[in-house]
Amino acid sequence: MQRVLFHSTIFGPIHSRRLGTSLGVNLTPNDGKICSFDCLYCEAGFNAQGPGTTGFAPRREVARLLEEKLSEMKRAGEGLDVITFSGNGEPTLHPEFAGVVDDTLRLRDSYFPQAKVSVLTNSTRLGSDEVREALKRVDNNILKLDSAIDATVRLLDRPNDPGFSSERVIGQLEEFAGTGIVQTMMLRGEWEGQRIDNTTDEEIEALIEAYRRIRPREIMLYSIDRQTPARTLEKIPAEELRAIGDRVSQATSIPVLVS
């Protein structure tokens, strides 16, 4: 079974194809996975591997470890483009997520004031006032929307919430008009006898309508880059991905980053 990628709370820095030199913050367990989605393409594996034993990283410990790493990088003369909340699950599930964001912004300002703070979120916690307000405070609020069609989201992202709907999430995403970044994983393949493809005309038109409603400051389209737990998924060729990006950009007048 494919398992979690990150075995520490602070990891990297690594080079992100979308964000540059990135220092990672993993708020979820170091030896397991906690997520409100169970995506077929998740590089950290399926939720079935279990939550592990270490639990959510305590807020005070996150701040201590982050400051140690930032201080070390500063002394070594290293550069830093971004501090990124990612890891082995959904960061906004952390019970003190808003406080951790505030600690991170304070430490960023002290050590690398030019660096951005980014959060990669699957958009499932946007019903929380505290989470929404914390996301508004970061530089790059990167919000997942893999499809505007419920059946596709349920097959591809496999939300834990039986009441999940694309319409509800799209409505919540509208609150981040002009500031949020919407990220969409494009792929096709098969899972348990069902065809998956969010690159069809129907899917792209539904996404375009959703993007128009949300009006994010940017759209990120990307495809599989590493091994996925569902081995029957297919990466979208770069040329096709660029063509989809051009189509979305022309239809919405929103900048589209393809990677």
Summarize the structure.
By secondary structure, this protein is an alpha/beta fold. The protein has helices at residues 59-75, 97-111, 129-137, 150-156, 166-173, 201-214, 238-252, and strands at 10-16, 20-26, 82-86, 116-121, 140-144, 181-185, 187-191, 194-197, 218-222, 233-235, 256-258. Helix 2 (97-111) links the parallel strand 3 (82-86) and strand 4 (116-121).
Walk me through the structure.
Helix 1 packs parallel to helix 2, helix 2 packs parallel to helix 3 and helix 6 crosses helix 7. The chain has an eight-stranded mixed sheet. A three-stranded antiparallel sheet has the order 8-7-10, with helices on one face. The two termini are 27 Å apart. The protein is α/β, with parallel strands linked by helices and 259 residues long.
Give the helix level as a range of percent: 25-40%
Q: How many E strands? A: 11
Gross geometry: globular
| Biggest sheet descriptor | 8 strands, mixed
Q: How would you spell out the order of helices and strands?
A: EEHEHEHEHHEEEHEEHE
H/I helix tally: 7
Which key phrases capture this entry?
259 residues, alpha/beta, eight-stranded mixed beta sheet, three-stranded antiparallel beta sheet, 33% helix, 21% strand
Spell out the blueprint of helices and strands:
Elements: E1 10-16, E2 20-26, H1 59-75, E3 82-86, H2 97-111, E4 116-121, H3 129-137, E5 140-144, H4 150-156, H5 166-173, E6 181-185, E7 187-191, E8 194-197, H6 201-214, E9 218-222, E10 233-235, H7 238-252, E11 256-258
Parallel strand pairs: 2-3, 3-4, 4-5, 5-6, 6-9, 9-11
Antiparallel strand pairs: 1-2, 7-8, 7-10
